[in-house]
Amino acid sequence: MKPSIALRTHPEDLHALIRRFRVTNPRVFGSVLHGTDIEGSDLDLLVDPLPETTLFDLGGLQVMLEELLGVAVDVKTPGDLPARFRDAVLREAKPL
Questions:
Q1: Where are the domains of the chain?
Q2: How far apart are CA 6 and CA 1, in angstroms?
Q3: What is the C-alpha to C-alpha distance for residues 67 and 35, in angstroms, rounded to an integer?
Q4: Rg, the chain, Cα only
Q5: Dist. CA 17–CA 45, nearest whole Å
Q6: What class, spelled out in words, does domain 3-95 have in CATH?
Q7: Residue 69 to residues 13, 43, 55, 87, Cα–Cα distance (Å)
Q8: Tens of pLDDT along 34-93?
Q9: SS (H, E, C) 24-78
Q10: Cα separation, 71 vs 87, whole angstroms
């Protein structure tokens, strides 16, 4: 399934799941945002960590999203993005 389709099929469950982890401001970027995702693409999700967010939160969110949506998910924080394209991603990312 294309990640863009998976996002549209579970909107309430998706937001409820994200609220369980210590992150805010979930945004989509990459191929899903640009409408170029294909079967087998991953979902690129950008989140803002809270001061108490751990790697376990980010990893747990990724695993749970993959289980819910049935597609590969890549959860990133702004600090995870390489400096050479961080500003561009932050400008274009769209809220879920």
A1: 3-95
A2: 7
A3: 22
A4: 13
A5: 13
A6: alpha beta
A7: 10, 10, 21, 28
A8: 999 999 999 999 999 999 999 999 999 999 999 999 999 999 999 999 999 999 999 999
A9: EEEEEECHHHHCCCCCCCCEEEEEEECCCCCHHHHHHHHHHHHHHHCCCEEEECH
A10: 26
Token pair 């049935």 is found at 70
Distance from C-alpha of 78 to C-alpha of 48, rounded to nearest angstrom: 7
Tokens of 80: 């995870």
At 93, which helix (H) or strand (E)? Answer: none
Which two tokens mark 14?
A: 């998706």
Measured distance CA(65)–CA(72) in Å, rounded: 8
